[in-house]
From TrEMBL:
SUPFAM superfamilies: Complement control module/SCR domain (SSF57535), EGF/Laminin (SSF57196). Keywords: Disulfide bond, EGF-like domain, Endocytosis, Glycoprotein, Membrane, Receptor, Repeat, Signal, Sushi, Transmembrane, Transmembrane helix. Residues 1-18 form the signal peptide. InterPro entries: ECM_structural_protein, EGF, EGF-like_Ca-bd_dom, EGF-type_Asp/Asn_hydroxyl_site, EGF_Ca-bd_CS, NOTCH1_EGF-like, Sushi/SCR/CCP_sf, Sushi_SCR_CCP_dom. The lineage of its organism: Eukaryota, Metazoa, Spiralia, Lophotrochozoa, Mollusca. This is Sushi domain-containing protein. GO terms for molecular function: calcium ion binding. PROSITE patterns: ASX_HYDROXYL, EGF_2, EGF_CA, SUSHI. It is found in: Membrane. One of its GO terms (biological process) is endocytosis. Residues 55-111, 112-166, 200-269 form the Sushi domain. Pfam families: EGF_CA, FXa_inhibition, Sushi. GO terms for cellular component: membrane.
Length: 351
């Protein structure tokens, strides 16, 4: 019986200032076995069978003004911020071996002590309790141009200070084609996202939310009390003359770089049937109390459907008022004289 000694190495990995630091801890393991001194010693284990189907996680990304530590055989991680900085977002996560991905996104490390920020004209600025995150929104009828959130770092705000620009209003019938409107109003989304499922990936990767026709959109970065982490939310407000099809469906949420919602916001005309495909009228839609009517441009008259317009033959009635010849044209007419006559007003006189 001889003593076989195996040296077990445990590796602890961490990231400091953007570089990986590997540290190994040694443990001796003794076992008595009938071993030939000249025979190579191997230790059998069922670990390979147990790990079948598992996907290890890649090294997690580093963060500014902080570090990440990994332990628990590479299955657990913790982000921590440097002195005088605090974390915005989740700091503790684990490796999901079924997906090979970490369960959290890297947090932001922000600092206190930045000067007070003025609100942009026609906008509002909100600063969190610690004074390190400033979020901007615009009033109804305006939209943000610039960063919707600034972070405090080094005693100053980082990002592009935004302005609130006037949102454009539609200059033509915004719903001229019902089929096209449906496609434009409801962006193609790869998944339905609920607020309890949302995360901050779109904010970190600058993935803009989709636009909704006849609506202005504002984004905000807020704490999700359900998940205990910060998330990105897009809130939609309809233009004047429009309303939300479902008053409760006014927001979209982000998850894994994709925007979605249980029901996508949609703005529909507010008691104005003429805004929907011009009421079906070929020329002019005239709204009225509880309904509407169709009308035609000069030179046309309503057809049998009450919506289409046909050309009026002015020459069919009293020869259009012409003395000799009347010529009908689309939406108009003109007079002429026989050979040997000249026009004098609507009259024709001999040469």
């Amino acid at each position: 019986m001889k003593l076989a000694t195996a040296l077990l190495l445990t590796t602890v990995a961490s990231i400091v200032n953007g570089q990986w630091i590997l540290e190994q801890e040694e443990d001796d393991y003794d076992a008595y076995e009938d071993i030939d001194e000249n025979e190579e010693v191997t230790w059998e284990t069922d670990e390979e069978d147990e790990n079948k189907g598992e996907k290890p996680c890649s090294p997690p990304p580093s963060i500014r003004n902080g570090r990440v530590d990994i332990w628990g055989e590479g299955l657990l991680l913790e982000y921590s911020c440097d002195d005088k900085f605090y974390a915005v977002g989740s700091t503790h996560g684990a490796c999901d071996l079924s997906e090979g991905q970490w369960t959290i996104e890297p947090p932001l490390c922000v600092e206190e002590g930045c000067p007070a920020l003025p609100a942009p004209k026609n906008g509002v600025v909100s600063v969190d309790e610690s004074g390190g995150v400033a979020t901007f929104t615009c009033r109804l009828g305006y939209h943000l141009v610039g960063s919707n959130m600034l972070l405090c770092e080094g005693g100053r705000w980082t990002g592009i200070y935004p302005i609130c620009a006037v949102s454009p209003k539609p200059t033509e019938s915004p719903l001229a084609n019902t089929t096209d409107t449906k496609d434009k109003s409801k962006p193609v989304l790869k998944e339905s996202v609920r607020i309890e499922d949302s995360d901050e990936t779109c904010f970190h990767s600058h993935v803009e939310p989709p636009s909704v026709e006849n609506a202005v959109m504002e984004t905000s970065y807020v704490m999700n009390e359900i998940r205990g982490r910060y998330i990105t939310i897009a809130t939609y407000t309809c233009f004047h003359g429009y309303k939300l099809k479902d008053p409760e469906a006014n927001q979209m949420y982000c998850r894994n770089l994709k925007w979605g919602a249980p029901e996508v916001p949609e703005c529909v005309p507010e008691n104005e049937p003429c805004l929907i495909n011009n009421g079906g009228c070929q020329h002019v839609c005239v709204p009225g109390d509880g309904g509407y009517a169709c009308a035609c441009d000069p030179g046309y008259t309503l057809g049998q459907t009450g919506k289409d317009c046909i050309d009026v033959d002015e020459c069919a009635i009293d020869n259009g008022g012409c003395h000799q010849e009347c010529h009908n044209t689309l939406a108009s007419f003109f007079c002429s004289c026989f050979s040997g006559y000249v026009a004098k007003g609507h009259d024709c006189v001999g040469k």
